[in-house]
Structure formats: C-alpha cells, structure tokens
Queue: 4 jobs
Job 1
Amino acid sequence: MSRVGVAQLAPAPGETARGMVRIPGVEPAWEVPVFVVRGREPGPTLAVSAGVHAAEYPPIEAATRLARGLDPARLLGTAIVIPLVNTPGFFTRSIYVNPIDGRNLNRAFPGSPEGSASERVAYFLLEQVIVGCDAYVDLHCGDMIEALVPFAAYHLTGREEVDRVSRGLSEAFGIEYVIAGRGVDLPGTGYANAALRGVPALLAEVGQQGVYEQESVERLVQGVRGVMAWLGMLPGVRPSGPGPRREFSRFSWLYADVSGTYHPLVAVGEEVAEGQPVGEIRDLFGERLCELRAPATGPVLFLVTSLAINRGDPLLGVAVAE
Ligand SMILES: [Zn+2]
C-alpha cells in the first residue's frame, strides 16, 4: 500500500486511487486510509468520513463497503472516502478519544496545523479534504457504551444555500430523527465546522454499543448512496425520499454530578417529560446517591449503557424541538 499525501491521490477520470495518507506533523505517525473514486464524467465532489470515534464499527465498515462498491465508470463527480480517521484509537479500542493526546477528535475542529494531534487531524480533514468539496457526510454511531436511535444532524449557518443543501442531505439520507441546530451545545464538531466553511454537511448516527452488525452497516451505505443520488452522482439511482421525519433543534444532555453505578429507567426511543425520573446513580453498596430526572421533554435519542459512571459523564440526550 502506497503512503502518500492526499493531493497525490489523483486518479484519472474513471479510476479509483487509494493509499495511506500521513497526517502532517503528528508523532508518532498517524496515517489514515483514503479512497478517491473519480467518475468518468465530471460532477459534484463528496467527502465521507467514518471512525472519527474508533469503536464505532458499523460506520467504519459502511464507508469501506461504500467506497469499494462505487463503480467509477458509472459515477458522476468524485467521492473521497476516509473509512477510519482515528486509526490509533481503533487498535487500542479507545472510546470517545484517541490515545495520542487523549482528546475527542469531534470536538477538535476547526483544528490547527500547530496544535495537538487531534487538532492537526481535524485541521487536515477540514483544510485538505472537506473544504473544496460540494458536500460532506460524517458517519458515526453510538460508541462502545452508548445506545441510540438512528438520527442525523446538520448545522444551520444562516447561509441559505448551505442550509438548503444540508437539509437536502438529511432528507436524502432517509432518517426519521433529524437535529437541525446551531451546534452550540457541541462546539468543535466536524460537520458544524464544515458548514461554517461553506460546505453543506451531515452527521449520520446509526448503530451502537461496539456491536459490528450488518443492518446498521447497510443502512449507512444506503443512506450515503441516497445522498449521492440526490447530488446527481449516481445516474439511475433514486434517493429513497424523505420518509417520516421528526425535526428537532438541539439535544438537552443529562450529565452525572457524582461517580458511581448508573441505573437508567428509560430506553432509547422513549418519550420523556421534563422532570420525570429517568434513573439513579448508586454507590458501590447499592445505596442511591442521586435520583436522575429528564432534563427536557422529548424522545431519548441517546443513552449511556455503562454501569460505571464518572462525575461529568453524559448519561442521556433528549431531542428538543423548540
Ligand atoms: Zn461518534
């Protein structure tokens, strides 16, 4: 396998190039697999990433399968696919963070060429891959200790054309729960920073809990293919259409204010009312340390499933419509 810079992956029309690309300035070496699938005919350029969180397995396989399944002879435009961004974290089975600087890559955008490893990777992704593309899709799922209902999110920039296309990506992906927000609750995400740089972008979350299973993989592959069809990159393929859709404006997160064992009373997908008991944290003798109450009214889209909880950890996320 060749080791190159991303600019060197320049296939001729109708061909695919791939290689391990080294992130500039990161020690020890951090390399990511990159596919560039260039259609015979010109068209939009789409960037797709997965494995920003390294134990989110269905997205990693979905991006690989997507890239390998694209026929450049039938593609309009170019797909740049990075199926695993957090390669160091993958082999150490790290959740949330990468083992080089201990940071969450999806909080490190827009990054910096002189920052920590995460900031340099974020900068590379944004400046060398995403900016200049017509759209960006970042594939995620619940991490090793997270259950979730499949959902998508995009960042509203206030720029009409960017927001219109980002919304179109969410419809073409064909997912019911959509957060269309300002992203202020989660600064540093890749999709929000892409949109702020003028590249319409979608975060898609399908799968959970470190389980590598095929249904989520296929749903992610079909979602991105729907996006590509909507962008006009896959002639003959029709996007499956928006389907049922529930739109929200943000997450309301519940965090642990004490360490202990976590005993949720609700499941993902369940509708909760603000103030309703949703679980408790106990000490190591099984005594209740605190009762947990829903931070808002709405569906629980995200639920931590680890018994072990540290003070400050997220516990669940409720989608809020206001
Ligand atoms: Zn993730």
Note: The chain has six helices and 19 strands.
Job 2
Amino acid sequence: MKTFRCTLCGLCCRSSPISILPHEDYILRILANRLGVKYRSRPGYRVFDKRTGRDIALSYVMELVDGRCPFLRQDDLCMIQDVYKPLICRSFPYVPKQVRYIISNELKLVFAKVDYGISSACPVIRQDKEIIMGLMASTPLWHRLYFPQEYAAAMEMEEKRTLMLRLLSKLWISGIVSIDSDRGGVHNIINLYELLRTYFPNLPYIMGLGETLDRIRGR
Ligand code: SF4
Ligand code: SF4
C-alpha cells in the first residue's frame, strides 16, 4: 500500500511559523545557541498563575527568519534532523488544526482537545489526493495506514502535551500554582517545561528526553 513519502522539498520549513511544545522551545534555544542560529520564538497559549502573578506558556511558536525556519540549511535540509527535530516537523503534513486548552476550576484540571488534519501546503498531499480520498472512504484508520511515521509523531506530541498538562494540574491540586484563564494585563512568562522541572527534577527522563539532552550536551 502506498504510504506518505516526504520528498524533502523543504516547503513546510518555509510556509508559516512553527508551533512547538514548551520542552521543544527549551531544546531549540540550546541548539540555536550551540549552532549560532538566530532563533526567535513567542509564547502561544498562556494561563495565568494567580499565586506567582506569572503567565505559564503551554505552547510556543517558532518564528521564521527571512521566510525560513532558522534551522533550514541553504540546501533545504534540516540542520537538527539527527539531534532533535520538533514533533510537528516529524508529523507534518498530519498536523493539529485546532488546539483548545480547557481549564476546570472545579477539578483543578488543565487539559487539551486537539483536532488533527492534513496540510495541503505539502505537494505530496496534492499528488496523492485520490489515494487519500480512497483510503478515507474505506477505513477510519486511514491516517495510520497512509502516515505511519507521521501519525506516530502526532501521537507522541499529544502524549507529551498531556503529560505536561497532567503535571501542571498536579501542581494546581497541591496548591503550588493557582490557574486562571483570565490573564488580564501583562505579566512575566515562564515556560511550562521549565516550571515543571523545578518540581519534578526527573522530568526529562519521564518525558523520554534523556537521550536527546545527552546528544545535545555531546555536541
Ligand atoms: S512539504 Fe511535504 S514533501 Fe515537502 S518537506 Fe514538507 S513534508 Fe516533505
Ligand atoms: S526544525 Fe527542521 S524540519 Fe522543522 S521547520 Fe525547521 S528546518 Fe524544517
């Protein structure tokens, strides 16, 4: 059966800012520093912590520089491919179309509802349109069949997002943070991954980032 085959055209590295998770912003900053890459990101979705008066960033957006991802080499290959490639780059063109963060004050719970879809910015998708339509009509598992690797990356993205939100909820239940979606005003911002690492020192290992961080340190 025909599965998705990326042609490494690099279009997705030039089409729009790239949504990443908090631990990825942390990793990419270190990599950019090591590689001398001009990296710029901004917080995506934020919640307010009434206890510290800070915003906690639950996601980030990596900005393009001159219309390109700063990690895209001149030959259109990714310079961090073998060290750490963001999950959304690994799942592309099977990507989150809508991410809704839900806050339950009653349960002291933060969780996300994510809807995935296919990006038509990828030329392979346009080329395989008939195949994809046929698969969609024949099985609800079409995405697993056509995008085996990309689907696995998408699942990993959601596992990591869920894990970090669960740990944030745990901090809320313990009274360490007090979450409010109504942020009002301008506040200092803390990266969720970095906040969690303060309270869960083995977080990199819980998240399966040990090898990645060793690889980065070895660079
Ligand atoms: S646009 Fe599609 S084919 Fe081109 S690099 Fe991205 S995923 Fe691969
Ligand atoms: S990190 Fe690599 S794969 Fe992702 S957008 Fe940048 S160059 Fe492309």
Note: The longest strand covers residues 94-104.
Job 3
Amino acid sequence: MARPAGARLAMRRATVRRVGYVIECRDITVRRGSRHLLDHVTWCVGEGERWVVLGPNGAGKTTLLLIAATRLFPTSGTVDVLGERLGATDLAELRPLVGWASSALGGDIPPAESVRNVVMTGAYAVTGRWNEEYAEPDLRRCDTMLCDWGLTELAQRTFGTLSEGERKRALIARALMSNPEVLLLDEPGAGLDLAGREDLVTRMGALASDPGAPTQVVITHHVEEIPPGFTHALLLRSGQAIAQGEIADVITDERLSACFGLPLAVRQEGGRFHARRAHA
Ligand SMILES: Nc1ncnc2c1ncn2[C@@H]1O[C@H](COP(=O)(O)OP(=O)(O)O)[C@@H](O)[C@H]1O
Ligand SMILES: [Mg+2]
C-alpha cells in the first residue's frame, strides 16, 4: 500500500507553513433537508494551536470535525486541510496526515483485532490488517505509541475486551501512529470514570506540551476535560460559531452561559477549567 513519500510530506509541511492554517473552513454550511447542521461557520486553525470545541448536544461539533477529518463535504463554503482544497485533492494522500479518533470509528474496528494491530494499522489510516508491510521504524513507533498511551501490557489483548478508557487510548494511539500533522478527537472523555478521565487529560496535557506534537482539536461537552496547555476554543450552538479565539477570552461565564443556554460560572485553576450553574 502506498504511503505519502517523504518528499511529498515535506512539501506539504512547507505548504502549511506558507499558508499558515492547518484547517481553514470558510463560510461552511451543512444542510440536511431544511435543517442546517452547520450555518455559515468560518474557523481557521493555525499550526501548533490546540483547540477545544465546546457546545451542547446537537450543536454540530461532530459534523464540523468530520469535515476537518475529510470524511464529509459541506453543502457550501470552502475547506482547506493542510493547504489542500477538499474536492480538489487526493484524499488517500491527505488522510494519513490527519489523525482522527471518535467512538464512531471504534465501531468499525473488528473486536477480535489485537490492540497492537489496531494501533499499527493507523499508519495507513485503515481498519483491519491486510497486506501492508511494516518497516522497522513503524514497529518502533507502534511500541512508543503503546507506551505513551499506557497500552504496552495490553498489546496482545483483543480490542473487544478493552474497557472504555483503554479503548479510547487505543484509538488515540492509532490516530497518532501515522505521525499526522493534525490530531482530531471527538469526545475522547465520553463514558470514562473519574480516574479514566484524569488519566486521559494528563496524557493529553503531556501531548499538548510536546513541541513535536501535531496541531490538536478536541471536542468535549465538559470544560473539566480541557487538557492543560490548550490554547484556543470554539463555541458552537445550533450550528453556529458563537465565539472563538484564545481560550481565556472564550471560556468565560458570559460566553459559556450563552453557548449552553443556562447561567454558568467558570473557574480556572492550575491550567484546568471547572464550570457550575451560577446562582443569582
Ligand atoms: N444526516 C443527518 N440528517 C439530519 N440530521 C442530522 C444528520 N446528521 C446529524 N444530524 C443532526 O444534526 C445535528 C448536529 O449533529 P452533530 O454534529 O452530531 O452534533 P454534536 O456532535 O454537536 O452533538 C444533530 O441534531 C443531529 O441529530
Ligand atoms: Mg458529537
């Protein structure tokens, strides 16, 4: 199976540096029947930025991430990922540069697949292991990913036997396996217990502080799940981007309350956020 050649990859990295944006959505709308899942959203993610996307259920978060992951095209507007215009580029080349993990993807992974293979096949952004030939650097990177995400002891276990937290970590390790330019995570904290959430936030915080790490976008419902070191936030409500920018300017009482439709008080402490209902 063909992998993007090193030269091509270097060229794309240079392109991103020139254009400045890793993800550039301009005035995008996604319509299904008479509904607008996304309504004239403009959102640009620069290289090295780490974004959290917040919003209530049905706000359009997953739809936006699917577009950034090149899995969905908007009804109107333009999308450039790593300087490549969606609709005018070879997605097979682009996708290995975009690491994407969601519970939806977890459903595509055969439960009998070993954890090692789930991570390894991420090198090619495919599920199920076929006839790829893995080179020594791939094997080494796979071991590093397994170690970074606390999966070394579980490498021979089957994906279907993992706990929710272990499964989430395996999907993130897999998304990072191809050494992507951008990492997109859809609700990585959903369904985790407190220990699982704290473990995940700590590992994601470590990734956020790694200068060699890709640009990151994480969707969540809970400000408590924002890893330390995240730089920017986008608030979505009813398909519209109601606020975006540097995290301290966006995660405020007023803006978060408008986003979730109830009075909220936010606190920031030690790089983490906490929110609760505000009482008059
Ligand atoms: N194919 C579709 N047809 C109609 N509505 C859809 C379709 N896909 C998603 N939706 C609806 O669009 C809205 C936005 O969905 P989604 O992006 O998954 O929101 P979020 O991830 O913020 O919860 C939801 O109300 C969802 O039910
Ligand atoms: Mg969603």
Note: Residues 61-62 surround magnesium ion (ligand 2) (CB under 6 Å).
Job 4
Amino acid sequence: MSHEPLKSTLRIVNPQIENLTRQELLALQERRLVAQVRRAYERIPFYRRLWPKEAATLSSMAQFREVIPFQSKQDLLVAQDQMMVERVASPGSQVVSVHMTSGTTGLGQESHPLTRLDVEAMGSTWMYQAHWAGLQLGDVICYTFAVGMQTGGLSSFPMADRMASRFHQTGPYPSEKKADYLLQYQPHAFIISPAYLTRMQAIFEERKLDPRVVMPQLKCIFIAGESYTIEWAQRSMAFWGVNISEWYGLMQGGLNQCFSCETGILDQGERGHLHAMEHRMLCEILRPGTNDPVEPGEEGEMVATSLFREAFPIFRFRTGDRVRRMSSPCRCGRPMMSIQAGTIARYDDMMKIRGQNLWPDAVDKLVFENAAVEEYAGLVFIDPQGRETARLSLEFRPSSGLDAEQRKRHLSALADEIQGKLNVRLDIREADYLSLPRFEFKTRRWTDERRAGRSFVKYTA
Ligand SMILES: [Zn+2]
C-alpha cells in the first residue's frame, strides 16, 4: 500500500492549527488545559470541594494527570437540580441553551448548560469535518436524526449555521418520507447512522433508484454512532457513489471531537483515521484497569476533557467508549493524534455469555459479511432451565434472491462460523423483513434481559 502524502489535495480549514508541528499543538493544548482548570477551580464550588488546592495553580499536563480525578456519568447526574449553582461557571443569564444526553446507558439523562460561545465552539469545530469532507459554504445538508432536546440533533444547527447551509431536518419523518426528501432537496451531504444508511439503501433499491444518477449533487455522507465492517463501508460507498466521513463526539466533551479527513473512513482499503481536535479537547486513551495511556495501535477507553466549555466545564470524563489509537500517522500529515474509524464500541456492550466475552461488533462483522443480510437483533436471556441463551433474529434483503432453503443453510453455516470464531453458540432464526428495530442513532442491536432499564432511540420504519 502506498503512503503517498496528500499535500496537494488537502482542504485546510485553519492553517494556524493544521500546520502546527505535533510539539506545538501539544504545547497549545497544555496552555489551554491549565487555563481551563484554574478557571473552573476559581468559579465552580463543586470543583473546589472535589480537587486538591494545587488545582488553583496548576502548571502542566503532568500535574493535571496527577491531581485531577476522573469523572463518571454518575458524578454528572448527582444533584442536577443544584447544577446552576454548584456546577456552572457562567452567570445563568449567559446560558442560552441546555442540551440533554441521549440516555442510552439507561442511567439517566444529563443536562448540559451552554453559553453562546459554547454553541459557537460546537459549530466551528464540526465545520472541520464538513470542509475536510469536501463541503463548501452554502451546500445543502439533510439531517436524518430526530431533534428534540438531545444534543445529537441540536449540535447540528450551529454547524449548519457556520456552513451557511440550507439545512433540512428530516428526523421526525418515517424512512420512506426521508428518502422522498433526499430526492426532493438534493443535498450535497446527509447525516445518518450506519444501520440507517443500510435501510436507506434498501429503500432506494426497492424503488430501483441509483443515487449516482438521481442524486448527482451528493458529495459525501456523514455517519456516527456505531461500528461497521470494512465490507459494509466498501458496499455503501460503491452504492452511493461518494466518500463517507465519520465523526465521534460526546456531549460531555461539549463538541464533536474526532473527524475523518479527506481520506474518509477507508484509506486505500484500510480503516481510516478520525483526527482528534486536540486544540479544543484533551483526548486521553487509557488502558482499562491500569489507566496508563495506551501505545499507538492499542485499544483503550476514551477519557475526555474539553478545553472549550465556558458554562459547564468537564474534566477527565470516563466515556466508557472503546477506541483504538492509530499506529501510524495519517497521509494528510495533520499534527493531531487519531483513532480508528469504524471500530468505536462501548465497554458496557461487552456481554458475558456462558463465561465467554462476546462483543457485538465481532458478531456484526460475521453477520454482515454476507450482503444478503440487512439487519439483525440479538437477545440474551435465561431460559426456563436456567441456562444463559443468546438468540439472533436475522432479516434478509428482499433483493437477495435467496430461496427458503438457501436462507436456512446460511443461518446454520453462520451459527457454526460464530461458534468457531467467537466460542459462543447462538440460536439463529430468520425474522420477517422490517420486523426488527432500526435505530436512528447509537444503534443497539442487542437486548440483554439480564440487564434491565436501557432505553434507546428507535426510528419509525
Ligand atoms: Zn488525515
């Protein structure tokens, strides 16, 4: 594989940041981190109680790692009614918006107050991805996730605003209608989850529409919210005829923080880079158990600190997200550290079934290797005999052309393959087409009845 640098085709948004050396970028990050910690200590009673006095005069990244403790989701959910007094660094009158988290963990939804500058930072940071993906000011964007009080949708507005975009919120509508709007409004880009992109492809196929013909303006598709296989990425890019760009972000960080560059989610057939916005975030990737920083090429938990949150600064937030640090620099030559596209998962998604660890993305890989499969759902439960049982229900694409006998053989071969590779025997059955849930954001294909109380945002088919 060639590692030709991309210099001539780079779309630089901010040369003052993107042309820094790695050392210069880290020095800038450290200066901003020190200022953010001192400010939070001075203004926020909660942190004055939680942190040692050294925080008031913090002077380095090394000292930050020594004295500032981690924060969990539970920490953020405590005393939400006292938040404006105890946790917010800006006067209440400067808070212009409150975003909620999606609540996908089942622990509860956090509220995140934002000032005008916080909202502006969301938009101007996300703009990097839009430009790197090839969008220009004034381009048309369709946004397919539902927008309510949740940040997933709300944070898209400031980005569209910065891009001077004509912005269509198609989230509230059923899938068929969303497809109609894509055709009607002819966006240059649309924003969607990987599982939902598969659904959209099925609708186009049913209508015998080729997006390369009927959506000639389309430049790029933006995805987030779940992992996917390399084969899925190749198939999707071939079908839509454009590059796909991924982002990773979390409300606790205050902004989307890792983005694909010009190369997209696949670079020369291998998984691409998501560049961390290190001038606005500190992205620590730590080994579970020891909390040591991972080496390049290794997996660990993303721990996020925003350097750009005025109202509600959060430090060392343990995301529970499993990310892989890239082992070699990206061909674009930007100075930011990067994580691997397509493989972000949640540590609490890992299930233990009859003593074996089972990661949903490992099952995804085997299930979706066959393009005839459109969607699946997994269920883990205790059967009447008290045994832990895992059942997979799987939908075939109507366009696959497989007859009943071929589908049956496929299910049995898949069960054998999963058992051989993942050491867990799954009971695999066929489900009627469109009988399984699809997810608008943060896809969760597995229900573990041993763990109650998790709720997800589903879309209407
Ligand atoms: Zn790059």
Note: The chain has three domains: 27-69, 94-279+328-342, 350-448.
